């Protein structure tokens, strides 16, 4: 299993600013992901955070807007850059503890609720 | 790409009644997972189904994976207020990524 801590849990941000969300896992995990969940919607995968290399982004998400770091097996950050009201959402960090080829249980952090004014 | 469809989007249930939510994929899935997200909370893993025709139970929750491994269902009996939340099914896109359905949001009338 894995316990994931995210911070901040929520924030109110001004348009044009950037915010970095931190994600800490209590154990080494194979895969880490960042999801976005807009109000009342499902989870949309932003990117896979790769340890020591550039993240792998999903269609519609780019590194300039959502830079991601993963310096080790237990920590990752997501930055939401140059924010606009459309970026208001819950951002969820998640982790997979299984090996390659194993879409086992996905653990989620508590989420970071961002409101952009 | 593979997409998982889920219905209904909303389910309003009288306490004590049963209901079912359905998940369908256009392609055969190697497995399917179900998650529950309580209001204000984060998704929590419920179960993973792997075998064709598999049925698993967790107390009042019954999960089923179709014979063709393209559909799944979650049936809840004797609904309680603790069942409130959104239930998501999720299917693998590749070796490690999941595609989540739209979710079924359940509210319970006492």
How would you summarize the topology of this molecule?
The complex is a heterodimer of chains A (117) and B (110).
Chain A: E1 4-7, E2 10-13, E3 19-25, E4 31-37, E5 44-49, E6 56-57, E7 68-69, E8 75-80, E9 89-96, E10 106-108, E11 112-116
Parallel strand pairs in A: 2-11
Antiparallel strand pairs in A: 1-3, 3-8, 4-5, 4-9, 5-6, 7-8, 9-10, 9-11
Chain B: E1 4-7, E2 10-14, E3 19-25, E4 32-37, E5 44-49, E6 55-58, E7 61-65, E8 71-76, E9 85-92, E10 98-100, E11 104-109
Parallel strand pairs in B: 2-11
Antiparallel strand pairs in B: 1-3, 3-8, 4-5, 4-9, 6-7, 7-8, 9-10, 9-11
Largest interface (CB < 8 Å): A-B, 23 and 23 residues
How much strand content do the residues of chain A show?
over 45%
How far apart are the first and last residues' alpha carbons of chain A, in Å?
37 Å
What class, by secondary structure content of chain A? mainly beta
Mean pLDDT of chain B: 94
Give the number of helices of chain B.
0
- Helical fraction of chain B equals under 10%
Any low-confidence stretches of chain B, pLDDT <50, length ≥5? none
Outline type of chain B: globular
User: Roughly how much helix do the residues of chain A carry, as a percent range?
Assistant: under 10%
Contiguous runs where pLDDT drops below 50 for at least 5 residues of chain A: none
Radius of gyration of chain A: 13 Å
